[in-house]
Specification:
The complex is a heterodimer of chains A (250) and B (244). By secondary structure, chain A is mainly alpha-helical. Helix content of chain A is 82%, strand content 0%. The longest helix of chain A has 33 residues. Chain B is 36% helix and 26% strand. Chain B is built from 9 helices and 10 strands. The chains are: A mainly alpha (250), B alpha/beta (244).
């Protein structure tokens, strides 16, 4: 068991270094969302409630997490296509250790994202500081697992050339179906139902509700949490199966 | 002592038989070159021996360990350098070595020794602090092969180790491989006949998944009545049709 934990830690450290030493990952996971958070707040917050910091900051946290899919997928597909993983299969490392190594290396980035975007949000609107923000930061780990899981799945089945295009589905999904950039009132019922059953809006709502407050514990907290958690668990199980299947194909 | 033994080893993919009943023995300390044109079954054979691919039928043993049943034991004895340059690109050379050493369970003290051993064997100390992605192709390839030594294997599989290298880098690698010869058993696949000629104790020639010849260079020359490995290889693989 100790050897297994040591291998997971070694893989995690390596994966984290690979990701953070790529300037593009810093730009897309931190700088771009940060720029959008400040810009959209300054331009629009007096025009529409959508861009008040108590709604914008939680939305930006989940939006920034969608880029984790891209970078998790990228590192796995590159590792696969350069035979780096094949070489590691000759070691005693087990498939679940690889998966943990990938997940744990991205979690710190997700944590930095949520802490940073909430802190910056708090500079513009101090009312978002409080217990709700702490809970939102903790809950953001649940949605980050969903995006990381999708990244592992895409990385297991796509090559490094296609991973950008495929991941953009998730980034676009988070932008369009989260309801963070435009009000959902007035959308047709089909669209609203779709947004309710997919994880994007639920993840955003969960974060926002932690900041603005909960009226109905089930509707505002438990339901979105259960939906996001269910998607995260299911996608990680599928990702593990896809990764293991590729490992057998090696 | 026999380091590798196969008995009717066979590998089938959906509609292709990649290896057809391979019978082979490789002695401890030997440098054995496996030659063949593309699709001959060399890499598939290496992958089966390195526990990366499951045989369809037949058996293979690394020392007395079966490649299907004793994978963990075998993994302690072998390492592999793939055709592709398989390195952690954003890590420095030193970090790459430390990463592999830690993954194989070495202590800090052992990692220090390993670094010295690998630096000496490949002169990697010159570029130890450089990020792997910033090295030239030759140095990246050197690092990729060097990483296979980090675990100090008893058996080293080198799949096309000099593929894509310029002539100087290739010669440098030959020198390194020669220096390793006495320390471990090496199984090498290559397309470069002069490489097999310069390095091998024995040569195996594969075509369409079958082993057509196994023996020393001298035995190969005697069998084909040729004076170099390339001509002898062409003679065996083409059945004499392409002889000059």
């Amino acid at each position: 068991m100790n050897k297994s934990i040591s291998r997971i830690f070694t893989l995690t450290k390596r994966n984290l270094k690979e990701i953070i030493r790529d300037p593009l990952s810093l730009i897309f996971t931190i700088l771009l969302p940060l720029f959008m958070e400040i810009l959209f707040y300054l331009i629009f917050h007096e025009m529409t409630a959508q861009f008040e910091m108590k709604y914008l900051a939680p939305g930006i946290v989940v939006f920034s997490q969608s880029f984790l899919t891209l970078f998790t997928g990228l590192i796995i597909s590159v590792d696969r296509n350069t035979s780096f993983l094949t070489r590691l299969y000759v070691s005693k490392t087990k498939s679940y250790e690889f998966i943990f190594g990938y997940i744990l290396s991205v979690i710190p980035i997700a944590l930095v994202q949520s802490v940073l975007f909430f802190l910056v949000g708090g500079i513009f609107d101090a009312s978002i500081f409080g217990l709700g923000m702490v809970l939102a930061i903790l809950l953001s780990l649940v949605s980050s697992l969903f995006f990381i899981g999708v990244g592992i799945l895409f990385g297991s089945i796509c090559n490094e050339k296609s991973i950008g295009g495929v991941s953009s589905i998730i980034i676009t999904g988070q932008s369009v179906l989260s309801g963070m950039w435009f009000p959902t009132e007035g959308l047709n019922q089909g669209m609203i139902t779709l947004m309710k059953v997919l994880p994007f809006k639920n993840a955003t709502d969960l974060m926002q509700n932690m900041i603005v407050g909960i009226d109905d514990v089930f509707k505002d907290f438990l339901l979105p949490l259960i939906i996001v958690l269910a998607y995260s668990v299911v996608i990680i199980i599928i990702a593990i199966l896809a990764f293991r299947s590729k490992m057998k194909e090696k | 002592m026999i380091a590798i033994r196969t008995n009717n080893l066979r590998k089938e993919y959906k509609d292709v038989v990649a290896v057809k009943g391979l019978n082979l023995e490789i002695m401890e300390g030997e440098l054995f070159s496996l030659l063949g044109v593309n699709g001959a079954g060399k890499t598939t054979t290496i992958k089966m021996l390195a526990t990366l691919s499951k045989p369809t039928s037949g058996e293979a043993y690394i020392y007395d360990y079966n490649v299907e049943d004793d994978q963990d034991k075998i993994k302690e004895l072998i390492d592999i350098s793939m055709q592709e340059t398989a390195i952690a690109r954003k890590l420095t050379v030193e970090e790459n070595i430390e990463f592999y050493a830690k993954l194989s369970g070495q202590s800090d003290e052992e990692i220090k020794e390993t670094k010295n051993y690998v630096y000496n064997a490949f002169e990697l100390d010159k570029v130890a602090k450089k990020q792997a992605s910033k090295l030239s192709g030759g140095w990246q390839r050197k690092l990729s092969i060097a990483l296979a030594l980090v675990t100090k294997p008893k058996i080293l599989f080198l799949d096309e180790p000099t593929l894509g290298l310029d002539v100087i880098a290739r010669r440098e690698l030959w020198k390194t491989i020669r220096d390793l010869k006495d320390k471990m058993t090496i199984i090498l696949t290559t397309h470069y006949m002069e490489e097999a000629e310069a390095l091998s104790d024995r040569i195996g020639i594969m075509k369409d998944g079958e082993l057509l010849f196994v023996g020393t260079k001298e035995e190969l020359y005697a069998k084909t009545n040729k004076q170099n490995v390339e001509e002898a290889f062409i003679n065996i693989v083409s059945g004499g049709d392409l002889d000059e």
